[in-house]
Amino acid sequence: MFYIDPDICIDCGACEAVCPVEAIYMEDEVPDNENEYIALNHKFFEEK
């Protein structure tokens, strides 16, 4: 799983456009069945 630091991300969408497996979404466009990953991503950086 790839993690994106929410404190560093500037929401430009550049990573979304170049992801070879189309697995990166802008937070407000994450499919409903993948919403759990938003919290996991935030938690990953809280623990660092």
TrEMBL record:
Q: Check the record and name the InterPro entries matching this protein.
A: 4Fe4S_Fe-S-bd, 4Fe4S_Fe_S_CS
Which keywords fit this entry according to its UniProt record?
Iron, Iron-sulfur, Metal-binding
Q: Does the keyword Iron apply?
A: yes
Specify whether Glycoprotein is a keyword of the entry. Answer: no
The protein's superkingdom reads Bacteria
Q: Which GO terms describe its molecular function?
A: iron-sulfur cluster binding; metal ion binding
Q: Domain 4Fe-4S ferredoxin-type: where?
A: 1-29
Please state what the protein is called.
4Fe-4S ferredoxin
Question: From what organism does this protein derive?
Answer: Gracilibacillus boraciitolerans JCM 21714
Lineage per the UniProt record: Bacteria, Bacillati, Bacillota, Bacilli, Bacillales
